Amino acid sequence: MLSRAVARGDLVSAEELLLRSGHAGINRARPAAAGAVPAPLPRPVALEKACPGHEVRVATPAGPAAYWLLRRTGAEVAEDCRRIASEYAAVLKGARQRFEELAASPGLCHVADAAPGDLLFIDTETCGFSGTAVFLVGMMYYAEGGLVFEQCLARDYTEEGAVLAAFTERQEAAGVLVSFNGKAFDMTMIRERCAFHGIEPPPRRPPHLDLLHEVRRRWRKDLPNCRLTTLEQRFCGRRRVGDIPGSAIPDAYHRFVATGDAGPLGDIVHHNLLDLLTMAQLVVALLTGCGPAG
After folding, report:
1. In angstroms, how far is CA 91 from the centroid of its own chain?
2. How do residues 202-232 score in pLDDT, each as one tens digit?
3. Staple 135 to which of 84, 90, 154, 213, CB 3.0 to 4.6 Å?
4. Which long-range contacts (CB under 8 A, 24 or more apart) does 287-290 make?
5. Domains of the chain, first to last
6. pLDDT tens, 27-50?
7. Among 51, 21, 33, which residue's Cα sits nearest to residue 271?
8. Beta strand pairing call for 176-179 and 208-210
9. How many CA atoms lie within 13 A of 66 on its CB side?
10. What is the dihedral of CA 204, 207, 211, 217, to 10 degrees?
11. Mapped to the 3 state alphabet, what secondary structure does the chain carry?
12. How far apart are the first and last CA of the chain?
């Protein structure tokens, strides 16, 4: 009876048959009951609530410009961040070894010869691939016994230049830059967008350790893939729940700019923070020779 009702286009009868058999029915709009009050739309989430921070002004070739700065301590990012920071500092302080002993790339040897506070971890969020805006530059470093996270956010497309100018200043002062696929993606995007805004590259470029290259060289035969979330599970024992996928980030940012609703932006910021934290743990694994869990 159901198939005959559907075949002749009688959706009302078909839905009644489904309801009798315990199904939820067809996705078809029901007319509102007379006098019914429509459910209120969710209220937009303010930027200050979703991403607490403050405005910072910086000099750019186009003149003074502003961006939004978020600063977090490790305890605000993850419950076990204090332990991670202690392990990271202990390994970095004891990692001064000769190049031959490490049998590693120059980038990893620069890291092994650095103090914990010399490393600047970076991770960008962009509106897509080459030629699109960089709207978030996340940074992490070790200071005063813990990991500190700073994220430079463009509240709309016009603030990209300010974000890039702020990062360029920090880049020049770093002892070693650490990224995940940063040589091919993050730093390439930053250089392209800096050129677009007329921002000169820093006079000094620090050594750069790209963790993706190191992981592939060391463990590619032991892992199903070298994606950061896979490494996070196998090396850090951490699985993300409700994390926004990278492919959805550009659309989420465009919606924020269009509507002012910062709810999805909070998910992007958290995603960026976890990426940075995982990078610190990968540095520890590389310097200690700790392999992935089975």
Report:
1. 25
2. 988 899 999 999 999 999 999 999 999 999 9
3. 154
4. 287/91, 287/92, 287/95, 287/108, 287/111, 287/112, 288/91, 290/235
5. 51-288 (3.30.420.10)
6. 444 555 566 666 666 789 999 999
7. 51
8. parallel
9. 7
10. 140
11. CHHHHHHCCCHHHHHHHHHHCCCCCCCCCCCCCCCCCCCCCCCCCCHHHHCCCEEEEEEECCEEEEEEEEEEEHHHHCCCHHHHHHHHHHHHHCCCCCHHHHCCCHHHHHHHCCCHHHEEEEEEEECCCCCCCEEEEEEEEEECCEEEEEEEECCCHHHHHHHHHHHHHHHHHCCEEEECCHHHHHHHHHHHHHHHHCCCCCCCCCCEEEHHHHHHHHHHHHCCCCCHHHHHHHHHCCCCCCCCCHHHHHHHHHHHHHHCCCHHHHHHHHHHHHHHHHHHHHHHHHHHCCCCCC
12. 53
Residue whose token pair is 């002004």: 57
